[in-house]
Amino acid sequence: MKDGVELTRDMAGSKYRFKKDGKRHILIINEATKEDIGMYHVFTNGGESKAELEVEGHNECCFRGNTCSHATRTHKLTIDDVKPSDAGDYTFVPDGYALSLSAKLNFLEIKIDYVPRQDPPKIHLDTSGTSSKNVITVVAGNKLRLDVEISGEPAPTVCWMRGDKVVSEAEGRVRVETRKTLSSFVIEGAMKEDEGAYSLTVTNPAGEDKAELFVKIVGRWRVLTRSNGP
C-alpha cells in the first residue's frame, strides 16, 4: 500500500511490479518520480513493515527508511559529483524484511561550446587622392610618418610591402613600427629612391584587408659634376 491505497499491477497506467524471492516480496517502481514520494506499507501473516520513499533533485536520489512498529532507521544513498556512469537502476533491500524499493536514475548532460569572438581585420586609412591609388607627397629631405589605425579580433598580423619586397625593418631610415591597434610606416630624410608603390595587408582568422598607396618625392636635387681643369 502507498499512503493507505492498495497497489496492484492491474491498476490503469501502473508502474508497479511485484516480485517474490523465497520469503522476500519485492516492490519495483519503474522510473520513479516525485509523485512516488510517500509512505509504503507491506502486510504479511507475520506482521507489518513500512518504509518512506524520497526522490530528490535532478542529480540525487535517496531512499529513506525501513520502519517497523518497534524501531526506526533511516537509510540514504547520496551520489556526489554525478557522472554518466552513475545512471541506472537502484534498488534498496533492507535486511530482514521482505520488501525492496527501486528507482531509476537518468543522467542529463548539458554541453556548452565556447566560441571565441572573431572580427575581420580592418585598415582605417584616411588619405587624399582621386585616383585608384592613394598618393602621399613628401618633400625631399623631409620625414614621412604614416600612422595607420588597424582593428580586428584577434589582433591581426601586419605586413608592409614595397612592390613584392617586404618592409620589415624595425630600425633604420626606412622602418615599420607596429602596436596592437596602430602601424606606422616611417621614412627618415626622404630620397628620390624612396618613391614608389607601397601596400599594407592585415590578416587574422576572420579575414583580410589591404590598402595600397603611392609615395611621391618632390623637390630639387643637385647634380654634381667633376671638372677636368682649374
TrEMBL record:
Q: Name one GO biological process term.
A: sarcomere organization
Recorded hits in SUPFAM superfamilies, A to Z, give:
Immunoglobulin (SSF48726)
Q: Where is the Ig-like domain?
A: 121-214
A Pfam family name for this chain? I-set
Q: Which UniProt keywords apply?
A: Repeat
The record, for InterPro entries, names: Ig-like_dom, Ig-like_dom_sf, Ig-like_fold, Ig_I-set, Ig_sub, Striated_Muscle_Regulatory
Return the GO cellular component terms, semicolon-separated: M band
Answer yes or no on keyword Transferase: no
What is the recorded name of this protein?
A: Ig-like domain-containing protein
Species this protein is from: Takifugu bimaculatus
